[in-house]
Write a structure and sequence with these properties.
By secondary structure, the protein is mainly alpha-helical. The protein has five helices and no strands.
């Protein structure tokens, strides 16, 4: 997410977006996400997919200047506030919503969240 190689589906691109995932990176697929979930011992539910969509949308809106871990954390907390915010997201992603959610969404986790022992840098 922090380099120019992160491409997102945007109006004007020749690539057809994946139905239900209009902001997915161009090289992302549902199959990739499911394989990653399997290695993470996650059983994906519609709620997990909502988080994936939210991450893809948040990052596509900031493709020119990627969000840092704190900004992305806060945006997710706000987006899922009605469900319980970040605490709710940790129930879905025990290793951290950024550490586990970003790879599922086809995004490189922001610096500082790669260490799964930390879950999130924030």
């Amino acid at each position: 997410m922090n380099d120019a190689t992160q491409d997102f589906a945007r109006p004007g691109y020749e690539v057809e977006p994946i139905p239900g995932f209009p902001h997915a990176p161009l090289d992302w697929s549902l199959e990739q996400a499911e394989k990653i979930a399997e290695t993470e011992d996650l059983t994906l539910t519609e709620t997990h997919w909502q988080v994936v969509r939210a991450l893809q949308e948040l990052c596509s809106q900031q493709a020119e200047s990627p969000l840092n871990a704190r900004d992305l954390h806060d945006a997710l907390d706000e987006h899922f506030h009605a469900e319980g915010g970040i605490k709710y997201l940790y129930e879905l992603f025990p290793e951290g919503p950024l550490a586990q959610g970003c790879p599922l969404a086809g995004l490189e986790p922001p610096a500082g969240v790669q260490d799964k022992g930390m879950g999130s840098a924030v």
